[in-house]
Amino acid sequence: MKIYLAGPLFSNAERAFLDTVAARLRAEGFDVFVPHEQFAEQKFMRSDGGSAADEVYAVDLAGVTGADAVLAWLDGTQVDDGTAVEIGIFARLCAEDPKRYRGIIGLTTDMRVARRKGLVPGDGINLFLTGAIRASGEIVWSVDDAVAALIRLRDRV
Fold it and tell me: Nearest-CA neighbor of 143 among 19, 31, 60?
């Protein structure tokens, strides 16, 4: 099963976390599309933002539409805007073709999310975004739980 790994990727720490998650998923036998692996880091720093934006959009959109499921990292004071777009696009794909597109797993490990509302996964995250994820998947609190949820999606008949 091909997983699109969505999340913020603008710092070394963010990319390192996504790399760790991707390695874990690959060890579990998943094919993983990681957006920042598709470009040299300089691509994001170019001064001609228009052409860089067009290229990033085209490559990432192909990754989203080519995936069977999305694992979206939701940590932070707000969900990353690019991640929210990826969730929105994939939620629509799931609604249109649920046999082809398996679902979305939201991953939060951030205690700020838990403190904003409670300890129910999804509390403290924008309600529309939470609904988009839950329409075809779930929100989990650990990488282990995310792997288990993706295995459930993969094995779903």
Answer: 19
